């Protein structure tokens, strides 16, 4: 079994989309609302999620995005999430790539590999990271 890496989110409200990496001495990784919502969704599902199966997590994704986004209009939030979950994956793949790039810029390629979302041999996307509530 592989070792889990811990990620701690900064308190929402003051620093939305910021992730502290307690096992690394680095600046927080800052993600925009779409990136942060997708990253949090994958943190909540260590078993992995197929890219074609995002719609089955619609309610969970809406809840997470509403906490991360500054948009108060639910129709605007739904537009963003519909684009993310579309069959074309025109937004899904670039967001996955941007998340990876932000972790790599902060940590370097070798250390970042334990944090970002990637596709496994089984075709499911997952991160090796887990969400913790407090520093240990």
Tell me what the structure shows.
This protein has helices at residues 33-43, 58-68, 74-85, 92-107, 109-112; strands at residues 5-9, 18-20, 29-30, 118-119, 125-126, 129-131. By secondary structure, it is of the alpha+beta class. The protein contains five helices and six strands; from the N terminus they run E-E-E-H-H-H-H-H-E-E-E. Helix 1 (33-43) packs across helix 2 and helix 1 (33-43) crosses helix 4. The model is unreliable at 10-14 (pLDDT under 50). 27% of the residues are buried. 40% of the residues lie in helices and 12% in strands. The chain has one domain (5-131): Arc Repressor Mutant, subunit A (Orthogonal Bundle), CATH 1.10.10. A four-stranded mixed sheet has the order 3-2-1-6. A two-stranded antiparallel ribbon has the order 4-5. It starts with a strand and ends in a 5-residue tail after the last strand.
**Strand arrangement, major sheet:** 3-2-1-6
Q: Compute the number of strand runs.
A: 6
CATH architecture: Orthogonal Bundle
| Percent of residues in β-strands | 5-15%
Specify the number of helices: 5
The structural domain count equals 1
Mean pLDDT: 83
As residue ranges, the low-confidence spans are: 10-14
How would you spell out the order of helices and strands?
EEEHHHHHEEE
What's the N-to-C terminus distance? 21 Å
CATH classification, class level: Mainly Alpha
Radius of gyration: 14 Å
What is the global morphology? globular
The CATH topology annotation reads as: Arc Repressor Mutant, subunit A
Going by helix content, strand content and strand pairing, the class is alpha+beta
What's the helical proportion of residues?
A: 25-40%
Q: What's the story with the biggest beta sheet?
A: 4 strands, mixed
């Amino acid at each position: 079994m592989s070792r889990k890496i811990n990620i701690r989110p900064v308190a929402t409200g003051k620093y939305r989309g910021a992730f502290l990496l307690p096992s690394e001495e680095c600046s927080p990784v800052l993600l925009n609302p779409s990136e942060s919502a997708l990253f949090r969704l994958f943190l909540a599902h260590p078993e992995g999620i197929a890219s074609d199966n995002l719609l089955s997590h619609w309610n969970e994704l809406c809840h997470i995005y509403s906490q991360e986004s500054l948009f108060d209009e639910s129709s605007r939030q739904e537009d963003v999430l519909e684009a993310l979950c579309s069959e074309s994956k025109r937004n899904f793949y670039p967001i996955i790539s941007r998340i990876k790039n932000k972790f790599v810029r902060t940590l370097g390629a070798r250390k970042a590999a334990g944090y970002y979302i990637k596709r496994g041999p089984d075709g499911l996307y997952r991160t090796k990271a887990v969400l913790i509530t407090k520093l240990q």
